[in-house]
Amino acid sequence: MRPVDSSTVNALTTGRLPRWAPWVLLGGSWIVLCVVFGFVAAASDSEFNIAAALFLGTILFDVLIFVVAYLVEGARQARDRLITSLVATAFIIALLPLVSLISTVLVNGLPRFDIQFFSESMRNVVGEGGGALHAIMGTLLITLAATLISVPIGLLTAIYLVEYGRGSLARAITFLVDVMTGIPSIVAGLFAYAFFSLILSDPGVRFGLGGSVALSLLMIPVVVRSSEEMLKLVPNELREASYALGVPKWLTILKIVIPTSIAGITTGVTLAISRVIGETAPLLLIAGFTASMNYNLFEEKMMSLPVFVYTQYANPGTDVQSYLDRAWAGALALIVIVMVLNLVARLIAKIFSPKLGR
After folding, report:
1. Where is the ABC transmembrane type-1 domain (predicted)?
2. 3-state secondary structure 312-345
């Protein structure tokens, strides 16, 4: 056996940046710009702008990675690394609004993110203190009821379109779902308000179930579209194998198709919930707002977190800062709820998705 020449092996790795070099350059660029912006903010007595620091740090990284790669690896590899870094820069720029939003909400919301905020309502509170327990419970109840309305309707509609729908009826349903996708949230609230005003003969009707119906109008098209796409991804071979064993179509859908696509369906439902949980206009119209606890979806006004944030910001009392602190804390609570829902959805998808073993 011919011995391996060590000089040949070493030649393959010479003139190459180590794998950790781009990460070190990126992290170092961010640290340098954050330090610079920190000194500028301290000198001018202004707020630290993390989004701008990360943006300029990423631009500095693009320059550094090109220069370092040009000196070590040559012009061709430097151009390749520059293009790669520009793609990463575009991704980072797309994330900057989210980073700025989360950092702003954290800075302003954490001072009131305490036990009192989660254990008290705003009943008889006109200044400091109080909390958003009534709004949190209202949000959870209204969103849960909207989910119970939307998921069966949306999932069954998707099953019909994929497994049974043919001809003009399926095309009409698809067209109407597309139209519903573009409905403004205020129109959904007006529909729910008009519907229950006519049914109950009460022009001043306000209750939680009306808000759930309004939100369900916004959730259904998202559930239909996401579930439809997930059901289409199920291989036809699985259906045909089930039919070959004599399993009827409805049982094939129930035992084969839905379990195979349950992970994607769960993700779609979570996206639909995240789409509506922050809606303010429809709930302001039909659910109203109150400072007291209300656990009954069928009677009286019910507060929700988006409406709570809006009322605290738009109608501050004499102690303006206390109202603004509660508004920021409510926004932070809403973000936390959405994050928890996404984590739960991922957990459910992992547990119930089909296990692919050999």
Report:
1. 136-345
2. HHHCCCCCHHHHHHHHHHHHHHHHHHHHHHHHHH
Residues with Cβ within 8 Å of 251's Cβ and at least 6 positions away in sequence, in order, are: 242
Instruction: Kindly list the distances between the CA atom of residue 185 and the CA atoms of 96, 180, 190, 302, in Å, as whole numbers in the listed order.
Output: 27, 10, 9, 18
pLDDT at 1: 46
The per-residue pLDDT for range 68-103, each reduced to its tens digit, is 999 988 889 999 999 999 999 999 899 888 888 888
Angle formed at CA 225 by CA 270 and CA 97, multiple of 5 degrees:
55
Which two structure tokens, joined as six digits, stand for 108?
């302003």
Which pLDDT score is estimated for 354? Answer: 63
Rounded to the nearest 5 degrees, what angle is found at the Cα of 292, between the Cα atoms of 280 and 334? 40
Q: Which residues 6+ apart lie within 8 Å of 242 measured at CB?
A: 251, 252, 255, 256
Place of tokens 């419970």: 137
DSSP at 47: -
**125-169 tens-digit pLDDT:** 877 888 889 999 999 999 999 999 999 999 999 999 998 888 888
Number of Cβ atoms within 10 Å of the Cβ of 337: 19
Contact predicate 189/282, CB 8 Å: yes
CB 143 within 8 A of CB 129: no
Query: Residue 335's closest CA among 160, 102, 137, 108?
Result: 102
Q: From residue 325, give the alpha-carbon distance in Å to each of 51, 107, 261.
A: 23, 10, 43
Domains of the chain, first to last: 6-110 (no CATH), 133-352 (1.10.3720.10)
pLDDT of residue 114 exceeding 90, the answer is no
Q: Rounded distance, CA 296 to CA 302, Å?
A: 8
